[in-house]
Design a protein that fits this description.
two-stranded antiparallel ribbon, alpha+beta
Length: about 120
């Protein structure tokens, strides 16, 4: 009986892990549904902003408050489904030219060029 229960529990964990990976993204142990976003702060952008604000005469408290609400010191990633072209599609079946490969966290569209520009500035 114990062996049977252990097997059922193991199968349940495998199914749950597969389901989460197929229909959601995982970020730091948190499950994000398709379409959900996560904000990731960039410590270098935070340091740059803090230095700029210091030069403008802001106090450390003002800087901390500003950075906490600033959206340009990090990146927004969105959980999306990913696809690839199906190499052997059934040409009479809709959507068969694509094959779902899983999920991924991707930069939201208006941050993609900004990210590339930041990389080039290094």
């Amino acid at each position: 009986m114990i062996r049977f229960c252990s097997t059922i529990i193991a199968i349940s964990f495998i199914f749950a892990a597969y389901s989460a990976e197929d229909t959601a993204c995982i970020h730091k142990g948190r499950v994000l549904s398709i379409g959900e976003t996560v904000y990731i702060q960039d410590p270098v952008l935070v340091a740059d902003a803090a230095q700029h604000l210091r030069l403008e005469g802001n106090t450390e408290e003002q800087i901390k408050k500003y950075i906490k609400s600033a959206d340009w010191v990090g990146y927004v990633l969105k959980c999306v489904k990913t696809f690839k072209q199906n190499q052997t599609p059934i040409t009479t079946k809709r959507t068969d030219v694509l094959h779902k490969t899983g999920t991924a966290l991707v930069l939201i569209s208006h941050q993609q060029d900004w990210y590339e520009n930041l990389k080039e500035e290094r």
